[in-house]
Specification:
Largest sheet: 7 strands, mixed
GO molecular function: methyltransferase activity
Shape: globular
Keywords: Methyltransferase, Transferase
CATH topology of the largest domain: Rossmann fold
Protein name: Methyltransferase family protein
Number of domains: 2
CATH superfamily of the largest domain: Vaccinia Virus protein VP39
Number of strands: 11
Pfam families: Methyltransf_11
Strand order of the largest sheet: 3-2-1-4-5-11-10
CATH architecture of the largest domain: 3-Layer(aba) Sandwich
CATH class of the largest domain: Alpha Beta
Order of helices and strands: HHEHEHEEHEHEEEEHEHE
InterPro entries: Methyltransf_11 (IPR013216), SAM-dependent_MTases_sf (IPR029063)
């Protein structure tokens, strides 16, 4: 389901943002600061069309991108990419200085077993003292309030405006939800893409990190980091 969601969305993914090139720059700058402000060898293990990976490369990092979606990877420019599942990364042990898993990618994994497998793989490909940079939605708040929708975003382009918004359908367990992502294009045609997420809380994420060998988990709020989601960093 996740691969199909991103394969179908890939051609118009940039329209989620009001200004995608500016978002690439801002996110790259924010992640660069979190990585210590100097170039590193980085894996973006859920790179999509390259929003974070391309931004980091522009800051001087040696970035490799992987993603489940070949259609999304086909849009990435300027860095090497490979189609891969974050639960089975195709790299030797201790290959990277940092692994980035941003923009709510990990919560596509819907069971504790799959989350542990992915984090174990991220730990494996990091060198000793390497850093994990993980961002998700603020699911502590979402688990309390169970929102039904997101606010619409508007993408301006020469052909007109594209409006993107999501409807959320919570499962009876109160921890998983199905998403319908709507895009309304300038000619008023509309697409709907569906996927499922696990609303993993901060405490749950920290427990997963510690169980898979990471240390010093630290949260960085958007007001501090300049990134648009809360970020959790940890070290091997």
């Amino acid at each position: 389901m996740t691969r199909r969601f991103y394969d179908r969305l890939a051609a118009d993914y940039h329209r989620i943002y009001a200004d995608w090139p500016s978002s690439v720059r801002r996110q790259g700058e924010a992640l660069h600061r979190l990585l210590g402000g100097h170039p590193r060898r980085v894996l973006d293990c859920a790179c999509g069309i390259g929003t974070q990976a391309v931004g980091l490369a522009a800051q001087g990092h040696e970035v490799t991108g992987t993603d489940l979606s070949p259609a999304a990877l086909a849009r990435v420019t300027g860095i090497p990419v490979a189609a891969a599942d974050m639960r089975a990364l195709p790299f030797p042990d201790a290959t990277f200085d940092a692994v980035v898993c941003a923009d709510n990618s990990l919560p596509h994994l819907l069971t504790p077993e799959d989350v542990r497998r992915a984090l174990t793989e991220m730990h494996r490909v990091l060198r000793r003292g390497g850093r994990l940079v993980l961002s998700t939605r603020d699911y502590d708040e979402a688990r309390r309030t169970h929102p039904a929708a997101t606010r619409p975003s508007v993408h301006e382009a020469p052909d007109g405006r594209t409006i993107t918004f999501q409807l959320w359908h919570w499962h009876p367990d109160g921890t998983h939800y199905d998403v319908e992502l709507f895009q309304v294009f300038p000619d008023l045609t509309t697409t709907v893409h569906t996927t499922t997420y696990w609303a993993i809380t901060r405490a749950e994420l920290q427990d997963f990190l510690q169980a898979t060998g990471f240390s010093t988990p630290t949260w960085h709020e958007p007001e501090e980091s300049g990134f648009f989601q809360p970020i959790l960093t940890a070290k091997t």
